[in-house]
Amino acid sequence: MTTWNPLRADGRLRPGLRALSAQGYCIGEAAVLLATPAQRCFERSRVRDPCFEPAGGIDPVDPIVLCAGSPWRHAVVRLHLIANARIRRPALPPAAFGASKPELPWAIRLAGGRRCVYADGTTTAIGTRRLNYTCDDGPNHDRGRLDLYGTVDRAHRTWRIHAARHSGDRRLRPVVVAHIWR
């Protein structure tokens, strides 16, 4: 399990990451609870979630958050926060709080190498399990996309989560979780 943040403890960008600049606004806590404070933000009509706050909180003089699509991408967006009068959003969003034990990790790597990120917004369900993660094609691109449903089952030595093929297959099967990011 990795607690991921694009910023080092001293506030500088982590080695290996590059930051692209943009402007936008945040509306409050990220959709998925992370171990560190993160915001749900917008750059024009594009959702940026999660956007990580600096260790000391968002600076009111130069309000910036760093938005990341996944922990394995090498680029993040340095979002300079501006007020949005149209929807009555100030430049400084409400404070976000990190969760000490998030129920839903931000990202998951399966034992076969597939990488999956939290599926924000409206999704579907199979039975009582919500589609919570969408996965890349993995190292063997011929297998098709996989979706993950429900939460990570941590009751066993080997963690698992339920999966179904993206093609509309409604059968869930357990798959092994190799690593999670929170």
Describe this entry's structure for a reader.
With 182 residues, this protein is mostly beta strands. It has strands at 18-29, 38-43, 46-52, 64-67, 75-81, 107-110, 115-118, 125-126, 129-135, 146-153, 160-165, 173-181. The strands form two sheets. A six-stranded antiparallel beta barrel has the order 6-7-9-10-11-12. A hairpin with an 8-residue loop joins strand 1 (18-29) and strand 2. It is globular, with a radius of gyration of 17 Å. It starts with 17 loop residues before the first strand and ends with a strand. The model has no long low-confidence stretch (mean pLDDT 87).
Annotation keywords:
six-stranded antiparallel β-barrel; globular; mainly beta; 42% strand; single chain; 182 residues; five-stranded mixed beta barrel
